[in-house]
Amino acid sequence: MMELVTGGSGSGKSAYAEKMICEKHRQLCGTAEKPPLYYIADMVPYGQETEKKIEAHRKMRAGKGFTTIEWYVDLPGRISAPDSPDLKGSCVLLECISNLTANEMYEPGGAENTGKDTVKCIIRGVQMLKERCAHLVVVTNDVFRESVPDSEEMTAYKDNLGTISRALAEMADRVTEVVFGVPVCIKAVSDTASGTRDRMKGIDAQEDGSEEKGRHGMKFITGGAYQGKLEYAKKLYPDAEWADGTGCSLQELLSCGAVDHFHLFVRRWLQAGKTPQELTGEILDKNRDLIIVCDEIGCGLVPTDAFEREYRESVGRICTELVKYTDEVYRVTCGAGVRLR
Length: 341
Description:
The chain folds into two domains: 2-192, 3-Layer(aba) Sandwich (Rossmann fold), CATH 3.40.50.300; 214-339, Rossmann fold, CATH 3.40.50. It is 41% helix and 22% strand. It is built from twelve helices and 14 strands. Strands 3-2-4-5-1-6-7-8 form an eight-stranded mixed β-sheet, with helices on both faces. A hairpin with a 2-residue loop joins β7 and β8. The longest helix is centred in the middle third of the chain and has 20 residues, at 152-171. It starts with a strand and ends with a strand. Residues 191-197 and 201-214 have low confidence and may be disordered. GO terms for molecular function: adenosylcobinamide kinase activity; ATP binding; cobinamide phosphate guanylyltransferase activity; GTP binding. It comes from Candidatus Mediterraneibacter gallistercoris.
């Protein structure tokens, strides 16, 4: 059984992940053999700040029976090595994918510096863990909900991390987002008469026929960058004709069935000197059946640049107003969607 745990910085995701893997371990300890309990640590101790974080995590794990393994890069190679611990039947907590991605991209022994592919290397490593462990909990980090444009290097990092997180969510039996210490299940696998199937709120309701899959009325799909929102929306609305807010005109926006990157359309709209109220009025007047896919950009530090502050707030206010007129609202995390309305 594999669970992927995500959440923002300081959200309580580490404590939740430890709690879950320890519970699974206690359950197995009631059997004939007591399985090992491993913590795979991948944060490289660079300096005082990271050393303090590592020490804090060690204190959290103290007395819980963990054996710590420090694997900073190349999970497949570490797992296959002759001196690797026997992971068969074990309980493993891997923390965290955001650090591992950075290590593979930038560390001297990482994938990018040894002729390998970061995304493939990490996904393969987690797959190998899942094949060997009785229970596996993997922690990743939500860094995808800010408004300020990223540098080229940061864009590449977020793209890799988002791709990896979506693949791991697909692989996992359960995906949990931790919000201020509260775990929210966004994907679970349940046993049915026809076998095991994913339960992702929203798509399942339509497949089951419990809700009519209507195309009348505005629809809204949001979530952080690189979370798979467009792919999710296309599963829900396979017949929609799409425009891209990165470069489409107002006329295209008002005549299309669906728009991706709506936040970037808003950015261009504001740069042209137009107001949020004008855009909201145009959409409500001429395209009330629009399907909108928009990045959730209101989190993170308040931008220092005046336009960036205006842009971030305007996207929030425009979307808040438009959502009043929607009959379906979804939030996508790691490729898994939850219906909010």
